[in-house]
Amino acid sequence: MRLKSLIAAGLAGMIALAGCASPGGQTAAPTGGGGATTPAAAGGGDVGVFTWWAEGSEKVGLEALQKVFKEKYPKNTFVNLAVAGGAGSNAKAKLAADLKNNNPPDSFQGHAGAELFDYIQAGQIEPVNDVMDGLGGAKVFPKNLLDLITVDGKIYSVPSNVHRSNVVWSNPTVLAKANIGAEAPASLDAWLADMQKLKDAGVQTPLAVGTAPWTQLHLFESVLLSELGTDGYVQLFSDGDWTSEKVKSAVDKFGKLLSFANTGGADDWPQATDMVIDGKAAYNVMGDWAVAQFTEKGKKEKTDYLYWPTPGTDGTFLFLADSFTLPKGAKNASGAKDWLNTVGSAEGQKAFNLAKGSIPARTDVSVSDFPAYQQSAMKSFQSDKIAPSIAHGAAAQQAWSSDITTALSKYVTDKDAAAFVTALGAAASKNR
């Protein structure tokens, strides 16, 4: 398989405007849209589904999808195999061991994009063209998203949603302590200046960041995007220079941001987001699954929280998408396909994304069914440039992402910017 060229083609497609096929562009058809019908359930039985949605709003989203699955396929029994750890940092290690030992779940969560190719290359997942065709295929799923899950004409997963990574969530009450308004800063420098104002006003933690390495990478990718711009950022994953002056500037500003961050109290993303919710921090950069966390805690948009693209990235949608696979050797392959049909249905995508804070991967789910944030994300995905997330598997395969994370974790500890940049260059040379 021409994996490297296919990954490059998929990433190049993501740069283009997504306006021709975007979530929320139409009104949902009553039974799933695109002429699709719900296939009859097979023999039923236990269906083991492996995810990392074990807490917070992610768990709520999975439960909403599970409810639809039970309604559509009552002969099946959903078996929750979730492993805690945001972005799958813990789950992926267990999944890798299970797949290596020929003990796969019936379906597992993966990220559309480069991460998916690891499983394809290892021969660990089966094509699901028949499922996608039944769901409506290219009639209801954006082409640029389908490109990221397709190799040699074979589709290897069913997308459940689209997320935006480059979002700042803020607490207006905390901002008011430093007379900072609701408007987004125009640049990273302006944002850093606001953080200094917060410090001067007695706010101990302007920026909440989880101690889990993936949450730090999540912040870093937004900083890279801000400094390099969309085209320069995407080029990093083809032939861009990871030791350039712009990357060095991004590392410098990332370090300055960390100087305003907490030193503990937030192991993973829910705890970091809760710091903003509880008024213990002013800002948190997190994907839009965070909006469900605010909603779950009874918080109201504009009154209790604000959001805007990470400074310097307005006009770009830093993209990731969750999808579900059919593992080779799944014990209940027919039940797994029932699950995939649920994941890809209009009903499933509406229920799941309303709960999780993301937007549907399908294009035929009504915009009006969703609250304000998700409507704004649908509009952005339709009109803005698209860039792939590193932390969430869209931009780089797991080995490369792991090398970036290792280098970043060392930098967070020792603050050696030159060594970090050198390590980033070495990781690109090794994996590209």
Automatic annotation (TrEMBL):
<comment type="function">
    <text>Part of a binding-protein-dependent transport system for a sugar.</text>
</comment>
<dbReference type="GO" id="GO:0030313">
    <property type="term" value="C:cell envelope"/>
</dbReference>
<keyword id="KW-0732">Signal</keyword>
<dbReference type="InterPro" id="IPR050490">
    <property type="entry name" value="Bact_solute-bd_prot1"/>
</dbReference>
<keyword id="KW-0813">Transport</keyword>
<dbReference type="InterPro" id="IPR006059">
    <property type="entry name" value="SBP"/>
</dbReference>
<comment type="similarity">
    <text>Belongs to the bacterial solute-binding protein 1 family.</text>
</comment>
<dbReference type="Pfam" id="PF01547">
    <property type="entry name" value="SBP_bac_1"/>
</dbReference>
<feature type="signal peptide">
    <location>
        <begin position="1"/>
        <end position="28"/>
    </location>
</feature>
<protein>
    <recommendedName>
        <fullName>Probable sugar-binding periplasmic protein</fullName>
    </recommendedName>
</protein>
